[in-house]
Design a protein that fits this description.
homodimer, mainly alpha
Chain lengths: ~200, ~200
DNA sequence: TCGATTCTGTTGGATAAGCAACACTGGAGC
DNA sequence: GCTCCAGTGTTGCTTATCCAACAGAATCGA
């Protein structure tokens, strides 16, 4: 039903291979960082033939894309944010999810890589935008879904980035931070009841 | 080199399939017990086609055989008991290994099954016998390796079974129990220096 | 700069795994 | 007795993965 399921009934072998590659990819990236990792490293760790890798992904950048997209999607699904309607509580959960995802993912790439960060930004914002646009459309609000969802997804990502880059001792928890910025985002959405 | 490695360079696909089946088997057996578990349960859990199961094993009993053999072998390899020579310390480690393996394996089958116990006895004793025979032969002792290893493997298994079936509060630890019976087994082997 | 090594993509043919269908068995319930 | 149902093995065909080999790009040390 949902547009976010292009892959549901897939050949078990394909599913297995992709999972193996994804897991191996995360493992080796957390050890060597993204730049210095090779396709051979990944397939070796995964126990998958190198030719098979290229049957699924053109290169390691495509696998990075896939992994990030998949990872963030699973976080959304875990909290059932992909199958719900708009509410302040869900918006709050969404922002917290983004904060934790960015923070967690970044720490899993040693040393940090601009490529990695860039792909993460692209993929996460894309899914954010799609999800929020869906929320708005189901609301039947009079705001332009495309415009509002774009602005909101960028805003959320930017705030989450800033929060995750804050290495000071006084950085608040993701929940606390989210509560601070929640009114701003919600107002930005123009979805709260106007006074 | 070692005779205990009939499978070293195996097609990655078959290695993968067997691991999946073995893991799924252990999972479902610990949930439903061995008797009531079906091939469909196993393959379903493993995400492996049912026809593929039969390409590897004639039935679930064969998989039970394989799993037990594999499991015990891995315990031996973990302690490098498969690539060492005889010594009292290694004999001690071996007995402890058997005690813990039996105790652990039995508790992973709910409800307990006579089939399960029987297969475990056969497989464990067979590997014990092979290993001890190897030890004796490398010693160049004058005892008959076949005879001595058979008696010793039976003795060890019997003692370990008795220990693992002892559900009383005063059951000693596997290490303590082993220290108690170690002189007996070693003497049985006639491998200690005669007075 | 050059040679050597390592990694990258790609190919053709071999093999394992998936799938849908089939006949068969054995037990549960009527 | 009977049917019904769920599990078992087995089959022919399709598809994904493996493997060895290859040529070209990139990296590195002398």
């Amino acid at each position: 039903m949902s547009s976010t399921f292009p892959e549901e009934k897939l050949d078990p072998r394909v599913k297995r291979t992709r999972q193996l590659l994804e897991q191996a990819f995360l493992d080796v990236v957390s050890q060597k960082g993204f730049q210095s990792v090779s396709v051979q490293d990944i397939t070796g760790k995964a126990g998958v033939n190198r030719a098979t890798f290229y049957a699924h992904f053109p290169d390691k950048y495509a696998l990075l894309d896939y992994s990030v997209r998949q990872g963030f999607r699973q976080e959304l699904e875990k909290r059932t944010l992909n199958v719900c309607t708009f509410s302040i509580e869900n918006l709050r959960a969404l922002i917290i999810t983004v904060c934790e995802f960015i923070s967690n993912a970044s720490s899993h790439c040693n040393p940090p890589s601009p490529q990695f960060e860039s792909v993460m930004e692209t993929q996460v914002k894309a899914q954010l935008q799609e999800l929020i646009q869906n929320w708005i459309q189901k609301l039947g609000s009079d705001v332009d879904p495309k415009i509002a969802s774009t602005a909101t997804s960028w805003a959320i990502y930017g705030l989450a980035m800033q929060w995750s880059h804050d290495k000071s001792k006084k950085r608040p928890s993701a929940e606390k931070f989210t509560d601070d910025v929640l009114p701003l985002i919600a107002g930005n959405l123009s979805l709260m009841q106007p006074a």
